[in-house]
Design goal:
Largest interface: A-B, 26 and 29 residues
Helix content of chain A: 25-40%
Oligomer: heterodimer
Strand content of chain B: 5-15%
Structural class of chain B: alpha/beta
Distance between the termini of chain A: 32 Å
Helix content of chain B: 40-55%
Largest sheet of chain B: 4 strands, parallel
Shape of chain A: globular
Shape of chain B: globular
Low-confidence stretches of chain B: none
Radius of gyration of chain A: 11 Å
Strand order of the largest sheet of chain B: 3-2-1-4
Structural class of chain A: alpha+beta
Largest sheet of chain A: 3 strands, mixed
Distance between the termini of chain B: 38 Å
Mean pLDDT of chain A: 91
Number of strands of chain A: 3
Chain lengths: 67, 275
Amino acid sequence: MSVDRLAQARDLLEREGVEAAISAAGESGDILAVRVHVAERPRLARLAPGIRALGFRYVAIELVDGP
Amino acid sequence: MDEALLQAKYGTLIRILEDCESVCIGYSGGVDSVFLAKAALLSLGAERVLAVIGRSPSYPAAQFRAAVEYAELLGLPWVEVSTHEMESSGYVTNSPSRCYFCKDELWSRLAAVATRHGLHTVVDGANADDAHDHRPGARAAREHGVRSPLQEAGLAKDEIRELSRRAGLPTWDQPASPCLASRLAYGLAVTPERLAQVEAAEMLLRRRGVREVRVRHHGDVARIEVAPGELDAAAPTIVALVPRLRALGFDRVLLDVEGYRRGALNEALVQLTAS
């Protein structure tokens, strides 16, 4: 996954008001991992088609902590 | 659901099974094969029906126990056979044709069982919906002469669930549970260790009440898909389980924002085909 696509994904998210750390994940870097609270999921789900259009196959929330 | 059409399809299913004379069923304990077994028992009688459970690391132990429980409940004769798809390089390399190699092994074993027991026809639980998905395993079934009575009768999954409900089968609302290898991203080698990781992770989530869930294995990453209807309610539970999921060997745990989609890993194939 190119850095360009990652930058484009960051731009897209920021335009929609989502400011979060993002990274490419998976063996082929085809997952966009977004570090946000799980309560943000519905909003990210709405943005997922646009992110997939950038070349990512999946959009996911990075879960970092337990309770 | 059109009642007359449903009854007509069921009647067709019974006639197909009668045409099979006696059946050796590829039986997993899932919605489709349990319903098929019930219909076969009704149309042929237990002496002309044998369910065969193929066992390998890709078949969850919990599902085996459930399959046996349902067989005992139905009065369904059953045997288990070990399958050795892990010895096939075509399977282990996990190409999009992986299912072909697995099913080729399975149907070879079932054909031998059918011969030993004097059973006329090997059948599987493929349904009408399966015809629309990426199913290389269906080619293996055709090559081994396996029939798919539910598919031949035109019965779709929701119709099978409805008929199962009416028949009082405990599987009628059971989530679909394809083999564990289906959770591994294509190209990621299938190993017993990875299959065990997926099995343990999904069991952990199910025991905490997450009902319809897939843990997709992407190497060091677990990408969790939950049915959209329960996704938001399940999210806090999943977050709380992150340390235990990591302890299974995943460096990163991700929650897919769109949730469970049947054949999600096949979406990559669609994109490859289109590009």
